């Protein structure tokens, strides 16, 4: 076996592993999209949600593995050129994303809060047309919180501009059987702490999956 043949087969096996890994990452991304689809509605830029990033990472890894494996096995110069161009592009994207993430790391929390508040105040509807009501109800019931920073975030939103109401999902279990507890304007009836800390932690835990996949 010549040295060239050994290198060719090694490169083929390595990229076959990338191809399988890409399939796995893509599967994880699809699972995240199906399991946590509602949470992406909280953000205006849904394309930048965690599940979308994982799917993109899976597709890129799949393409890398496919081009590298086929190009090395069949000694196709065109596929190998595409492979190396894609490798360089991925490295540049990762470097740029990492640099921007480090530079603007302190602004991420503020941007996330603004996104959540904007969605709550302007896109929340009582008839659940866009699914945002269901998502907020799930969050507030699961994390025992109300609003983004506090329950006051629900006051005078577009859905009830002249009222200081909160959704029924903010109500404490002891009064949850009262249908109008969110309209009582009595803080002893509902959670007062905001949901941002819990949402931030939830998102960061899912982003670790993205980082692990990229590594």
From TrEMBL:
Location (main, coarse): membrane
Coiled coil feature spans: none
Disulfide bridge partners, by residue number: 146-171
Cellular compartments annotated: Membrane
InterPro entries: Tetraspanin/Peripherin, Tetraspanin_animals, Tetraspanin_EC2_sf
Record-linked SUPFAM superfamilies: Tetraspanin
Domain of life: Eukaryota
Region forming the signal peptide: none
Annotated family: Belongs to the tetraspanin (TM4SF) family.
Name of protein: Tetraspanin
Species of provenance: Larinioides sclopetarius
The organism's taxonomic lineage, starting at the top: Eukaryota, Metazoa, Ecdysozoa, Arthropoda, Chelicerata
């Amino acid at each position: 076996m010549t040295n060239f043949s050994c290198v060719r087969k090694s490169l083929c096996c390595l990229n076959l592993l990338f191809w399988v890994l890409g399939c796995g990452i893509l599967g994880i991304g699809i699972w995240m999209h199906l399991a946590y689809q509602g949470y992406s509605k909280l953000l205006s830029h849904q394309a930048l949600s965690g599940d979308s990033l994982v799917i993109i990472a899976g597709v890129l890894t799949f393409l890398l593995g496919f081009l590298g494996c086929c190009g090395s096995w069949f000694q196709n110069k065109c596929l190998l050129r595409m492979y190396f161009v894609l490798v360089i592009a991925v490295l540049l994207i990762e470097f740029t994303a990492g640099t921007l993430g480090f530079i603007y790391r302190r602004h991420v929390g503020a941007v996330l809060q603004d996104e959540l508040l904007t969605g709550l105040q302007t896109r929340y509807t009582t008839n659940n047309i866009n699914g945002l009501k269901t998502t907020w109800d799930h969050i507030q019931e699961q994390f025992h919180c109300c609003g983004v920073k506090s329950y006051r975030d629900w006051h005078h939103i577009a859905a009830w501009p002249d009222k200081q109401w909160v959704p029924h999902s903010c109500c404490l279990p002891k009064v949850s059987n009262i249908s109008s507890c969110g309209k009582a304007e009595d803080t002893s009836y509902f959670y007062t702490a905001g949901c941002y800390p819990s949402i931030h932690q939830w998102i960061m835990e899912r982003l670790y999956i993205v980082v692990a996949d990229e590594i």
